[in-house]
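Minutes, project check-in
Item: structure for the 324-residue chain
Input as provided by the requester:
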Amino acid sequence: MPDGIATSDAVYKTLLESTRAIPWKIDWQSMTFAYIGPQIEALLGWSQSSWVGVNDWAERMHPDDREAVVNFCVSQSQAGTDHEADYRALTASGEYVWIRDVVHVVRNAAGEVEALIGFMFDISERKQAEQRLADLQKQLEEYSYKDGLTGVANRRMFDRVLEVEWASAQRSLQPLSLILLDIDYFKQYNDHYGHIQGDDCLKSVGQALGMAASRPRDFVGRFGGEEFVLILPETDAAAAAQVAERCRRLVREQGIQHARSQVAPLLTVSLGVGSIVPTASAQALDFVAAVDKLLYRAKEGGRNRFEAAQWDAHTADVAELALR
């Protein structure tokens, strides 16, 4: 071999082996490694000589990634298409490192696949950064739908859930119930005990309502100020009345003193309870407005109580339940 060529090969080899990227070459016919850079040992802990065939590559891949990545790389290589693949590679110590393989397909004069050459890159830091960003985005999304004080859902989330559950009830012709509740004489509570204790009071009420609505699809949110709301899918009028009474009882059992209440020495709530099987033309906002009127009737009727009404799919008339 001429000295110039030998020198060039040595230079290229030195350059390849001095980069953080790990060069490799696979012979397509034998499916064996013709070469892999010594950097592989520093990254994964496996010796350079242990990379014999493609099985060594596949078996040192996370089980959850293996089938999809191997199938993708094989199909792309067979088609003669350059490609990239991200996966978790097993280290000799039993941990996993995120790898990006960048693959170039080499063809012979006849156009047949002859070899695969490529580079492995350690992308663990990038993946960790992506995961931190995804976690942050998820957290921000949760915050955007959560009331910052009480921890229950906020009005924005209520609007979204009501839209979904209303449409579901229209399709299935199943009853949907809504409870709006208001803390009795909350302004007087704040004036007497102060806003810090008022905030604690709101938190306690939110916790009590969370216990009252126990099914997976039941929704509890803060409607605004001292008002809370519950959405109860597939819940008829009788069951909704039971939930309303449970809300009233659980708030009372918090034992929150309210010296300025005109109905009881402990904190109480008033509730409006509506149940409906919505028709195709019925509007969710009209339903909310009707339930809100029931809440105000409960307050006008003495507070610490609830009033309820129900609609069905065949009439727009309100059939009032027994008022409690």
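Outcome recorded: The chain has two domains: 3-128, 145-320.
No further action items on this chain.
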